[in-house]
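Recall that a protein's primary structure is simply its ordered list of amino acids. Everything else, from secondary elements to tertiary packing, is in principle encoded there. The following example makes that idea concrete.
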Amino acid sequence: MGALGVEPDHAGVYGVLSLITWSLIVVVAFKYVLIILRADNDGEGGVLALAQRVVPDDIEAWSIKHWTLVGIGLFGAALLFGDGIITPALSVLSAVEGLHLAAPGLDPFIVPITIAILAGLFSIQRFGTGHVGRLFGPVMLLWFGTLGALGAYQIAQHPDVLMGLHPRHAVAFFGEHGLAGTLILGAVFLAVTGAEALYADLGHFGRGPIQRSWFALVFPALLLNYFGQGALLLREPELVDNVFYHLVPPWALYPLLALATVATIIASQAVISGVFSLTSQAVQLGYFPRAEIRHTNSSRRGQIYVPSANRFLLVGTLVLVLTFRSSGALADAYGIAVSLTMAITTLLLYFVMREVWRLPLVVALALAVALLCVDVAFFASIVRKVASGGWIPLSIAALLVLVMGVWRRGRQLVERHRPVVRVKDVRRPDGGSLVFLVREPSQVPRSVASPQEVIAQQFANLGEWQEELGRLIADIRSSGNA
């Protein structure tokens, strides 16, 4: 607060706490946990799954609107890919830098230790979300329990801090601080950045477990801790620069530091598994080359591991760590991609509400506009970061969109000249049934069709090839005459 020009007095503390509280309520609890988690695509989540809800299964029936919506979804997915590289690098690096409080002599080893932790984190992904969750789950339960207990103790010492629950303090805060209020909003945004990864992880955990864990554990623990920090600041405003670690007595500092370090590292797991889900969806849509996708759970289809995506994330995070070498240098790169993805999610949600859920136009439009105003406000508060680091996830997203566009266009050119055998044209001599996997519902893989059917389709396409060859020869002649 102090670094952003906001004094840790009653008005400032109540205003920031009110902003955090209602951001968590509106963005995470209401928008994502209660609404968007219901917009799954056969149990899968993420911005691409949301786009798939509003387009027909048969790609040949897609209109310009459908292609546009999928394109927007792909851009949102590419943004989350960029965030998937930055988040592990920033989280682990900042966690390891916390060791400076305990042992300043370890400063030269921060980068090597970070690299070792990242290598270990990505190496265990092959065991699947279920096994990783059983390893990390107890630690996170202890972490959120600790957060809640520390905050509750401080609130008991200064219960007046609960005044910050009222939204009028957030409104008054902007009225009093103006531009500084916008800067604080950029810091408040950090409290909700995990919401998009939460939705992308829907296929790994399911809607019910996510909703129960949020409302029963995570949300109460976060509120208690934020308000506990506020209560401590009201008593000792000089602690504004590092209030969290002053929630505990000196003898408990090192255990809290160790627990916070492990929890921060584990927090990267959500975005990693989310990238796996988005990669699988992009492959299914034909925007990525075919990749090995391992299903790590026999009873939950959404729990997958994508080795190529895992290697991509590992290399990307290591490059960032070796290039920037400190969390401070990487901090400005964080948040831009998530804020844009949240706005894209809201836009796609409008079409789901209208075309899938059949909500009245007034209801769907009012809800989408209200949520989009919140998304735009957060983006405006951090857009200044683009020049100082936000260009990194945007560049990664642009590169991935280019790759996806080129791959999709190349597939279209190949498919245009490849004989296509329709389902209606395939007949088994014995009158039996055929069971096969296929990308396009109306088509049959060439390996399933008989040679006679493939040859027949070749001749059916011959006229089209001759016309295209004639046009090419005419173009060459006209160019020569010119």
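The longest strand covers residues 294-295. Residues 2-412 form a domain with the Amino acid/polyamine transporter I fold (CATH 1.20.1740.10).
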